[in-house]
Amino acid sequence: MTMTYSITRAAVVGGGYMGGGIAAEIAGAGIPCVLIDVDAATARARVEQLREETAAMRADGRLTVVRAAAVEACLTAGTDIAADVPGCDFVLEAVPESLPLKAATLAAISAAAAPSAVLASNTSTIPISELSAHVDRPERFLGCHWMNPSRIVPGVEIVPTGDTAAEAVAAAEDFHTAIGKRPTRVGDVPGFVANRLQHALFAEALRLVDEGVASPGVVDEVTRSSFGYRLAAFGPFEVADMAGLDVYRACLATEQEAYGERFASTSLLDEAVVRGHLGLKSGHGLTPLAEKDPAEVARVRNAYFHGLSALLASVEGLEDLRTAAPHPGEDRT
Question: Which residues does residue 35 pair with via DSSP β-bridges, in sequence order?
Answer without folding.
Answer: 12, 77
